Amino acid sequence: MRFYKVSGSGNDFIALPGAADTTPPTAAEIRAWCRRGISLGADGVFLLRPRTPGEVTMVHFNADGTRAGLCLNGTRCAARLSFELGWASHHRVTIHTDAGPILAEAAEDTGDSIALTVPPPATPPTAVNIQVDDTPYQGILLTVGVPHLVLPWTGDLALAPVQVLGAALVHHGSVGEAGANIDFARFVAPDRLEIRTYERGVNAETLACGTGVLACTAAGIALGQTHLPVRVQTQGGFVLRVDGEIDGEIDGESGVAVRSWRLIGDARLVARGELLPGASVVPT
What we know:
Layout: E1 2-8, E2 11-17, H1 27-33, E3 44-52, E4 55-62, E5 67-68, H2 72-85, E6 92-97, E7 100-106, E8 113-118, E9 126-132, E10 135-144, E11 146-152, H3 162-169, E12 181-189, E13 192-199, E14 204-206, H4 210-222, E15 230-233, E16 239-246, E17 258-266, E18 268-274
């Protein structure tokens, strides 16, 4: 099976381009391929199919084989791959995801940068209080294609217990039956924040999370900690940028009145090749 290995700000994926009638991989195959050290290794897998000139369809799967409604780092990579394959001209493509169509454009400032125009959150952020092992945490729940719980972090983000606390919260009853990505956000300045994310479906911290970047930006706006544009430092060392327009006043009750926003960040093609039968072997 032909594949591309792609990376969006350190969030890496196995991309499978093909025709619309290509049989998708099974959940077991996805889990096997994404295992690091044993197979190719990745945070997820996405299928990319041509649709009409300038339009493609993307279907994203987490590393555990579950289908995800949206992955914005993967979507930027899908745009880069669409340009490479000649499925979109003039460095502009509409990518149809499970969360709706997203316009992707090659950013002018650097050759590996893609800008995505993303719809604002459908519902305003919701403040929640959660207790883990007798320790209370205040967070913000919202959906950016997929559910997120944002935890504002005032201390050194490098010392945040992302793996332990993320695992405890990802399927906590307070975040809903589907679970949520857990974002640790440090609001450094109104135009700058830092983020670490424990991703649902990967069940581990990843080096970047595009939907998490927007979720933390939205939470920061609702809390009065952030404005647009903002630069977001990820765990992988890349900086993603969010710009856009805001309607009216922002407060905790009205939520985030974002009219439109763009996520701009790194997206690169790392390798291409063929998945061999050994990639699907799972040790017993």
